[in-house]
Amino acid sequence: MHVQANAALILIDQQQGILHPRLGPRNNPEAEARMLELLQHWRRTARPVAHVQHLSHSPESVFWPGQSGVEFQQRFLPGEGERLVQKRVPDAFSATGLEDWLRQAGIEQLVIVGVATHNSVEATARTAGNLGFDTWVVEDACYTFDKADYFGVPHSAQEVHAMSLGNLHGEYATVVSSGVVLGA
User: Fold this and answer.
1) In which domain, by residue range, is 26 found?
2) What is the pairing mode between strands 134-143 and 109-115?
């Protein structure tokens, strides 16, 4: 496995609202540390970074514009020259200009991290794969929350995370660990 010199790091929804207790139990307590390691590596190696910010349609959302939850966490503030992608739906490619920016920059490889694994991460990775990007999802730099399935059966955040990664791996993306990415 090889990380291209211009591979883009796509950092999804690292906003203050994602830390709200009402979202419930989550998995991967070290995910933010892995995200920050990757972000620092991308900055050191002058690779492109895109910070994805969700702007909700719902006033009940932790990402409703005009309140603190929509703002980036301090440790994940976009740096100078890094791309800001604002989305209104889980998929970071939908009506955002992300694909145009990547194509114009000649970027063919994406490394996706962030939240929530089963929602915005999975939606974005599916589209990236469908668009033909060499898409990597970093399993230990993503996390999600407990969720009931369609039939009302509750699943732990780790189970939801594992199923989402299983949906992606081999079809839309390659699922890897941060150690693999940093060593590649």
Assistant:
1) 8-183
2) parallel
Residue 47 three-state SS:
coil
Q: Between the CA of residue 131 and those of 97, 134, 136, what are the distances in Å?
A: 14, 9, 14
Q: Rounded to 5 degrees, what are φ and ψ at 125?
A: -65, -40
Mean pLDDT by 10 residues, the chain (184 residues): 94 97 96 98 98 94 93 97 97 98 98 98 98 98 98 98 98 98 93
- Which secondary-structure segment (H or E) carries 52? strand 49-54
Q: What is the pTM of this model?
A: 0.97
Q: Is 115 a member of any domain?
A: yes
66's tokens: 């005009």
Total domains present in the chain: 1
CATH classification at residue 60: 3.40.50.850
Please indicate, yes or no, if residue 2 is contained in any of the structural domains: no
Report the C-alpha gap between 95 and 109 in whole angstroms: 20
Domain assignment of residue 1, yes or no: no
Token representation of residue 184: 């590649």
Rg of the chain taking only CA atoms, in angstroms:
15
Element (H, E) at 32: helix 31-44
Residue 84 lies in a domain: yes
- Cβ neighbours of residue 66 under 8 Å, at least 6 residues apart? none
Cα–Cα distance measured from residue 50 to residue 114, given in angstroms and rounded to the nearest whole number: 12
